[in-house]
């Protein structure tokens, strides 16, 4: 019988020590490979100088700091997060960047943005929601994008953890149960059903992570 998940299974909200040391922990967990990986992933976004980018789950602003290097003064980044400690770090790190802003906002609730952004980016956040809320986030992304804009998901790739190598199985046992639910789904089909096409996949970490790009129809 297929397991039924609810919001109590989610670990998407990061607080306390983990939030205050999130970037360092990501470096340690990945054996020091994360900085190289995330720079490559951001490069794969193909950011244009005047892009307006919405980041769903912007954390400490680490991804925004890499994106802003590709932008001119006409470019813009808006990051949304719900973690006070994460937002405090992001506000501090970007206090001298007028074209980069951060707001406290749940991304699984209706957002006020419509046809405003060239790219919407979400990194290792979508898997932490139940499917009902993931679809709300996808809807928010589509509404926020201009026609032809890119929705970019950086997250675990589709796989079956139960038959994966030992290390992968271990990672998914440490993750919230929703991560396993996430990787067992066909995300290209889901995105296509929700108004996206023109898919491009960039694999990382032996294919167990991917950057999935799709375009708003």
Question: What descriptive keywords fit this protein?
Answer:
9 helices, alpha/beta, 217 residues, seven-stranded mixed beta sheet
Sheet/helix structural class: alpha/beta
Shape: globular
Enumerate the strands of the largest sheet in spatial order, edge to edge or round the barrel: 3-2-1-4-5-7-6
Nearest-integer average pLDDT:
94
Radius of gyration of CA atoms, rounded to a whole number: 17 Å
Order of helices and strands: HHHEHEHEEHEHHHEE
What fraction, in percent, of the residue positions are helical?
A: 25-40%
Note poorly predicted spans: none
| Number of extended strands | 7
How many helices? The count is 9
Task: Sketch the major β-sheet.
Answer: 7 strands, mixed
N-C termini distance: 36 Å
Instruction: Please report which band the strand proportion falls in: under 5%, 5-15%, 15-25%, 25-35%, 35-45% or over 45%.
Output: 15-25%
Description:
By secondary structure, the protein is of the alpha/beta class. It is globular, with a radius of gyration of 17 Å. The mean pLDDT is 94.
Summarize the structure.
The protein is of the alpha/beta class and 217 residues long.
Helices and strands in order:
Layout (H helix, E strand, L loop, with lengths): L15 H5 L1 H8 L4 H10 L8 E5 L5 H6 L8 E6 L2 H10 L6 E5 L12 E7 L7 H14 E12 L9 H9 L2 H7 L3 H7 L2 E9 L4 E8 L1
Parallel strand pairs: 1-2, 1-4, 2-3, 4-5
Antiparallel strand pairs: 5-7, 6-7
